[in-house]
Amino acid sequence: MPMANRAAQFSPFAALSGYDGAVRETARLTDRRPELTEEAKSVLDAKLQLLVPGMGASFTYFQQDEKKEGGAYLTVTGTVKKFDSYAHEIILADDRRVPINDILEVQSEALGN
Predict the structure, then answer these.
(1) Which residues pair with 92 in a beta bridge?
(2) Most buried one in 61, 65, 72, 93, CB count within 10 A?
(3) Cβ neighbours for 106, distance < 8 A, ≥ 6 positions apart
């Protein structure tokens, strides 16, 4: 038997296929969805009303995890292309979409922050 074939018989054997992936998924941390105060909601609403297409802005929003409870905070920066009132999203110039109901913070030089 050639040496390469003999070495193959000593390769590791995974008796539980998929087990490592399941352990990694269980160990993956997620954040809880924050609840904004009424004051924070009104400040955020005022900032969103001042945004116009062509304005650059950064949006911090909460994205729900697809596999488990919780999610992650994401921040995207770009130029506002348009507002999709049907889908409740802000569409950026590079076609990324920011869900309005999940926005936690808006920053823009034009807004004074």
Answers:
(1) 80
(2) 61
(3) 44, 47, 48, 51, 57, 58, 59, 60
Written out in words, the top-level CATH class of the domain with range 31-111 is mainly beta
In tens, the pLDDT along 55-111 reads 999 999 988 887 777 788 889 999 999 999 899 999 999 999 999 999 999 998 776
Q: How many Cα neighbours within 13 Å face the side chain of 64? A: 6
- Stated length of the chain: 113
**Domain extents in the chain:** 31-111
The answer to whether 44 touches 16, Cβ cutoff 8 Å, is no
pLDDT of residue 65: 80
Q: Say if residues 99 and 85 touch (Cβ distance below 8 Å).
A: no
Containing 44, the helix (H) or strand (E) segment is: helix 38-50
Enter the pTM of the model. Answer: 0.68
